Amino acid sequence: MVNLDLEAFVSGLIHAVNNPLTYVQTNLTSLRRDVGDFARLLEAMEALLPHVDASHAAEVERVRRLRADLAMDEPGPVLEQILSDVQDGLRQVQVYLRATRALPKQLGGEAEVIDAEAWLAEVMGGLRGGWPADLELTFAGNPGGPFTGVRLHWTRVVEALVQNAREALLARRDRRAPGQIRVTASPGRVIVEDDGSGVPAAIRDRIFLPYFTTRPGAVGLGLAMAVQVARAGGGDVELLEEPGSMGGARFAVRLPSG
After folding, report:
1. Domain ranges, ordered by start, for the chain
2. pTM, two decimal places
3. Cα angle, residue 71 at apex, residues 67 and 75 outer, rounded to 5°
4. Is residue 139 helix, strand or coil?
5. 14-46 per-position pLDDT tens digit
6. CA-CA to 40 of 20 to 30 Å: which in 32, 58, 191, 244?
7. Domain topology for 109-254
């Protein structure tokens, strides 16, 4: 079952964050409208200044100083870019909120005895649906006998690792040949590896942290959820230090025993 305390906490958190976000979004819309008017007003003022009567020289000079103090050669485009950056930031926060809202349901479910071989074959079949044509996904081995756990949780763990490899390979701009992801099972263990560039040493100790990501627009919850769910279910997820034959990132899932 879903942890009701967690569900209430997440719901309250999202509500609390959404309120100021709505306020910011509303004011941002108004500001975007006014920025255009401000830019046009400034252009009209600069065109008018040379024609102002000499009796208003002091006022003209004051306006010129104020304009000089405005550290923008072209206020319209500069302010529009600032507003666009703020809008992008708001969208990213909203992405985080949507991902966070889904957490309680992903953590729900009842434990059962799972046929490891049939379960993993089902997971791989689901992953192949809609798979990119320029990526190769292979599967071999047998994860062994049955184990007890929440089927949805362990499905999410394997899916998160495969999807992480998939997104990393698709983001590679220098990719000429089709990328390859290999899932290999042995009793009590599932390894997911790819032929990408691997995980840089500088971020190896952070890749399982919630909301940590190196990909623009990503949320950074996939690996964090995978390791936490696996450990809560009596297993684990780790980034293997030893290089594999494919040369890229290599993750191991340890299934619960028995």
Report:
1. 4-105, 109-254
2. 0.66
3. 75
4. strand
5. 777 778 888 888 888 888 888 888 888 888 888
6. 58
7. Heat Shock Protein 90 (3.30.565)
